[in-house]
Amino acid sequence: MTETEAEIVPGRRREVMVVLPGLMLAMILAMLDNMIVGTAMPRIVGELGGLAHLSWVVTAYVLGTTVSTPIWGKIGDLYGRKTIFLASIAIFMVGSMLCGMAGSDLFGGTGGGMGELIGFRALQGLGAGGLMVNAMAIIGDLVPPRERGRYQGIMAAMMSLAMIAGPLVGGFITDHLNWRWAFYVNLPIGAVAFVWLVFRLHLPKYRTEHRIDWLGAGLLGVGITALVLITTWGGNQYDWGSWQILGLVAVAVVTLALFIPVERRVAEPIMPLHVFGNRNFTLVSLIGFLLGFAMFGAINFLPLFQQTVQGASATNSGLLLLPMMAAMMVVSLFVGQMITKTGKYKIYPVIGGVIMAVGMWLLSLQDVHTARWQTGVFIAVLGLGMGFLMQTTMLIAQNSVEQKDLGVSSSAATFFRSIGGSFGVSLFGAIFNHNLTSQLTEKLGPQAAKMAEGSARLDTKGLAQLPAQVRIGFLESLANSISSVFFWAILFAVLVPVLAIFVKEIPLRSGPVAPGGSGGTDSQAKDAAPVAVFD
User: Fold this and answer.
1) Residues 411-466: pLDDT tens digits?
2) How far apart are alpha carbons 338 and 475 in whole angstroms?
3) Cβ of 523: how many Cβ atoms within 10 Å?
4) CA–CA gap between residue 12 and residue 144 (Å, rounded)
């Protein structure tokens, strides 16, 4: 055991290792679900219809996660993270069950199946928001910043494994079972995680004034929803100058403008503005936004490209994503170990941002003739960049605030990544739909553009039934439209290393996790510590 390791509060190392399996299972729920659903999406659209609404299946989930994340983090700080964490698992499981039932006879048939799925995905996203933020905050409660790199690296590696397993499980389910099992598979995993944490998780509770900033949470939720709807509908479903878009702009401006004075006045703000006074926290929040924007917004289209343009089965498309996930897993473990060993972290988001931008550029070069092995190389490069970034940004955010604001910092870091993902999925979905309609009209005439509407079927059988000339034109249009998504993602990815250069390397504290202690500056450590008890 090294000197740094010995400085952990006595008994906490064993408790972390006991709790870690439950935390990983809970986080795997969210990561596994995204990857399984992404692989199964062509089959889902093939049965329920609604290609034009494909991005909304993802957007609803990410939006639910984004809106709920600040609330989960704050109420975890106030009421104790164990109860809140278990509640988020339960909500996620209920949402998963309902998603699997979408379009079934239980809800009156398949006529409104896509709408039901989108709604239930939003509920599922509400639960997912609590899974991600509270899992990271729990690690922060038990482990000092210097050691967090190691444990967060382990969790990042497990998340990478989930992202590897997700497409494989999703492919198997899609090829051999009903797509509904893409959601039902969450139920046994969630049940095991729930029971494990009920009996194994014991966390400190801090006696604070229990006041939830519901007004601030409501304003933030409405404002974010309006912004996401603007990026989704603007220039696609409605003209940019239409009353619908202008009305949403007005709602977003008014609600977010009211949010700032409300947060300054309330006793327990849902997102304390004082944390943004720390330069590192502000920078990593922006980096997280750009990371989510470029990554989640673009990666959503990879299974679609592999299954339709490259003709891979759902299972094979899952295997084709393995290079990206394997690269991310290896790099995450390496970075976690190096941060714990050296205490240095600034260089990693710089390197990761550069590599991620290169990966996006390579993916933007794809066309209908791109071989599967080339796509594998391109996404491996992208995975390398993600491995340098994912957990490092969370670590920097937690190291920038006091212990009492740990949940807020974790939720804010997750929030900005999620809101970036919401905007990315919405904006890139709009770009994809617009380009696909335009390309089809140009290549095959106005009538062919209707193929991009809800009646389109993207499964292999549906494409095989098209006349050869129409099928080739459709695949070329689809490939070009997906490539354009990655091209636009480059513009956001290149800003990540630029911002990371300005991060100030504050030494990671390696001492015990004292209640109310600071993970950042010395001045923060002078604040009085609240009384702690254990549940």
Assistant:
1) 777 778 777 776 777 778 778 877 887 887 877 776 655 654 433 445 556 666 66
2) 45
3) 8
4) 10
Compute the chain's Rg from CA coordinates: 23
SS3 195: helix
* 3-class SS of residue 102: coil
Q: What is d(CA 395, CA 403) in angstroms, rounded to the nearest whole number?
A: 13
Cβ-contact 40, 67 below 8 angstroms: no
What is the domain partition of the chain in residue ranges? 3-213+266-507, 214-265
Round to the nearest angstrom and report the end-to-end CA distance of the chain. Answer: 29
- Cα(243)–Cα(226) distance, integer angstroms: 13
Rounded Cα–Cα distance for residues 482 and 300 (Å) = 10
DSSP state of 528: P
Q: How far apart are CA 95 and CA 227, in angstroms?
A: 24
**Mean of the per-residue pLDDT values of the chain:** 74
How far apart are the C-alpha atoms of 325 and 302, rounded to whole Å? 13
Confidence of residue 92 (pLDDT cuts 50, 70, 90): very high
Tokens 């995905």 belong to residue: 121
Handedness of CA 183, 185, 190, 191 (dihedral sign): positive
Residue at token pair 């709602």: 251
Task: Specify the higher pLDDT residue, 248 or 303.
Answer: 248
> Which fold, 3-213+266-507?
Growth Hormone; Chain: A; (1.20.1250)
Overall size of the chain counted in residues: 535
Q: In whole angstroms, what is the distance from residue 70 CA to residue 217 CA? A: 8
